[in-house]
Amino acid sequence: MSIEYLGLSEINGPLIALEGVKNAAYEEIVELTVEGKEKKLGRIVEVYDDKAVIQVFAGSENMSLHNTHTKLTGHPMEISLSPKMLGRTFDGLGRPIDRLGRIVSDIKRNVNGLPLNPVTREYPRNYIRTGISAIDGLTTLIRGQKLPIFSGNGLPHNELAAQIVRQASLGDAEADKNFAIVFAAMGVKYDVADFFRRTFQESGASDHVVMFLNLANDPVVERLITPKVALTVAEYLAFDCNMHVLVILTDMTSFAEAMREVSSSKGEIPSRKGYPGYLYSELATIYERAGIVEGVNGSVTQIPILTMPNDDITHPIPDLTGYITEGQIVLDRNLHGQSVYPPINILPSLSRLMKDGIGEGFTRADHQDVANQLFSCYAKVGDARALASVIGEDELSPLDKKYLEFGKAFEIEFLGQRADENRTIETTLDIGWHLLRMLPREELDRIDTKVLDVYYNKEESELPSEEDSTDGPSNAE
């Protein structure tokens, strides 16, 4: 028998306090009725003695100490799960907003998830093709990996996220039947949400996408639940339905700022930059839900996107994210100013699991050598540009001038590509070799001589046309 409590003892922003509570549990969901008609949901975020602090998802507007009835449900927040969620759009709490009705299913799961036993984890192998050369060639995304994108205000991370959703593939038309994307947006403006929704529909990608949208005018506390709801759906599709699932979370900065706001309302002692001291553990709780489980054919791969305040990579959010995840992709404002899209700065970017999911049997035998050499040569471009800024370009040695030419071509031809250009891994590596041939052979010291013999002296074949490079997954077969 459930007990209904009349009245509240305190209201503080999105938080309310209730006294005289029996058998309340942390993370338990409560149902709130305001003036006998308006229904709201909340969750218990603190319990001590007979008092409970409740976080109200829809905010505490219209609530007073005397007009609210509170009922404890006896369970944490749960979401109904079904394969029919593919192609659907939900709000930040998992409620349908596409007018197609609610999800009817006997399967319900706690959105907080369960920690994966490290012993049952399998090491991530094989890659997910995004069709973007800077990612596929130099910071390859591996199934089961968590690889964040570090961006900044005004940089095209939304366009990049939409392109990844449209183009992401396992590289095989047959395998792609078991590929799905879970997309969760937190604190985005309406026009940005409409851009994502329209882009996915027009490209035909929406059929294998589950979308969660928490808008900027939605209650702040919903943002704390949105990534957990999205990951619960991803885990169901991966571990129950044996699908390979790519989860894109944008923007984790909005999530962290929502956490700071709620923490301040609770009167907690702030840590760095005003964020709560448990920011690290909360981020880890989300990021560590990626992976592969032994004996299951599915996987959960994560691409969290965050905007660095003032482009500061040492800010607590990117700093802590870097500790937890397996690399990062960094967007650069200078490249964006030169109209390079996507403006990925490859020098601070890396994928720590890349070496185990590329090469022969996965991508192409020369992949690792080409990636190493492109990194090395582009680093020398920076040295040549720094020297040219001091003594002038005319005074540079012939080799340094070659590196300057290589740098310009690399940024335009390799990093730069159209927003609708879907490159195969072969196209990406061929462009890499085309650029490396601009330099003397003796400068290519990161490539095995046997590989050099095969590719460096090979006559330049005509690179794939624009039509070829925009083909779908069948190109990778």
Automatic annotation (TrEMBL):
Entry coiled-coil feature ranges: none
* CDD domains for the chain: ATP-synt_V_A-type_beta_C (cd18112), ATP-synt_V_A-type_beta_N (cd18118), V_A-ATPase_B (cd01135)
Q: Where is this region: Disordered?
A: 458-477
Q: Where is the ATP synthase A/B type C-terminal domain?
A: 356-456
Q: Which residues form the ATPase F1/V1/A1 complex alpha/beta subunit N-terminal domain?
A: 9-63
For whether the record's keyword set contains Transport, the answer is yes
The source's superkingdom equals: Bacteria
Q: Name one Pfam family in it.
A: ATP-synt_ab_N
Keywords attached to this entry:
ATP synthesis, Hydrogen ion transport, Ion transport, Transport
InterPro entries, alphabetized: ATP-synt_VA_C, ATPase_a/bsu_AS, ATPase_F1/V1/A1_a/bsu_N, ATPase_F1/V1/A1_a/bsu_nucl-bd, P-loop_NTPase, V-ATPase_su_B/beta
Where do the ATPase F1/V1/A1 complex alpha/beta subunit nucleotide-binding domain residues begin and end? 131-351
The record's HAMAP family line, in alphabetical order, gives: ATP_synth_B_arch
Give the protein's function.
Answer: Produces ATP from ADP in the presence of a proton gradient across the membrane. The V-type beta chain is a regulatory subunit.
Q: Which PANTHER family match?
A: V-TYPE PROTON ATPASE SUBUNIT B
Q: Which family does it belong to?
A: Belongs to the ATPase alpha/beta chains family.
* Protein name according to UniProt: V-type ATP synthase beta chain
Origin species, per record, is Diplocloster modestus
Encoded by which gene?
atpB
